[in-house]
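User: Can you predict the 3D structure for this chain?
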Amino acid sequence: MRSRPIALLAFLAAFVALVLLHAPLLRLPYYWDEAGYYIPAALDFYHAGLLIPQGTLPVGHTPLVMIYLGLVWRLFGFSPLVTRSAMILVAAATVASLYALGRRVASREVAAWSAVLLAVSPLFFAQSSLVHLDLAAGLFTTLALLTLLQRRLGMFALTASMAVLCKETAVVLLPVAWLVYWRRKSVHPSVSTQKSWLALTTPLLPLFAWAAYYHHVTGYWTGNREYLAYNLYSTLVPGRIFWGLLRRLYEIFIAGFNWLLALGAVLGVCWQRRQLGKSQKLSSGTQEQLQHEFFLLAGGLTALYLGLLSVVGGAILPRYLLPVVPLLILVAVIFLWRLPRRVARLVCLLVVGCFVCAWFVNPPYPFPFEDNLAYADFVRLHQQAAKFLEAQRGQPRVLTAWPASDELTRPFLGYVHMPLRVVAVESFAARDFHDVAPNSFDLLYVYSREWEPRNNWVMRFSWWRRAQERYFDYQPQIPEEMLAARYRLRLLQRFERRGQWAGIYARR
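Assistant: Here is the predicted structure, written as structure tokens:
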């Protein structure tokens, strides 16, 4: 029972710390996929109780996060401050859940360091205040593993069901849980088969119910025609699966200074083997057995997520791996703690410092802005550009690409007070301007949609560039000077912020 007050204290400490660290970001308007799907979908539930949105194209995601936000807005009002605080609450609960899981399988210090490292890891920290599904799926996945290790099958059924209702891909938790159950059954034949199977299959029921309801309303079991073409049919290519797996492995084990934590874990394993060679064998106590079971769960779940996300999903976004990030951090710290204690603490301190630096330092190759605080620079640039465009007289037609096209036409996103007249293109690739006539717009609003550093060493390798173009539809952004020359435009205003930029051009 003592663990409950400690877990509550960890939750409160994590919430206060994350709120203070995110204080400058809490009132930022909504960013990218937030603006394109999640906020409009949550608003449809908030205003009309709709589980399947009508204000945006439905994509089949299970609705629990949108329901949660709708209820929070009902209590506290609709604003970015309320929304981002609500998501930080989920992030803090994830940190506290990882601490509780760490206490179950390891020492108090290992649990504490794991919680701290998760809280400051650049991907998790950036996602802590953003409205995406993966953070909430990570919370309930962590809780599901904790309850499974505690042999609380009823709570496992509940938390696993919540994970699936946050994001449908969390269903991959169930095969791993079944594997652990069969292993436990072979060791302890007295385990109740009927009760265990009921708990392990219950999370399928809400998923089947949602799929049936979604099919009844939309005619699709999930997604829509365009969504399925992009996220499934176009991805079932062996070459793409291979490159997708490589990118996923890089994201989870190397990117954002993850390599430093992974290296520490490897050194811990090597050190332990060396020491065991000089002394007695490992003990087989209860905690070691729990650790072994946890490693099986974490390893199996990570393998299934890596396999699934290499086969499906048009966008290679690191946030999709958030459900397993807490588990991998705990595994790494457990292995790291097999080094001498002083060395392990120094490595953890070094990793914390590098993680914090990675909030602000962008890599020398393209990456999603949402992987660190670059997303905040993107939003602030677009705030400046939207304010400038809103001040123009005569209601000019603005040619731009999504997500700016939504930012300028949907005031509830927080960029403009009234909708502007927008002519939208899909992106700023050269192919998107083939059918754009010079007289179809008055102003051009162009901006950096992707991080393209001048010293982009990755794209200098022709084989890598060809793979990205072939399998991931990589298209470099057309230089703004070419657009200005083609449409005879003059620069009205330019905004820059930490390597990102936005330019507004007018016809001469």
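The longest helix spans residues 80-105. The two ends are 73 Å apart (CA to CA).
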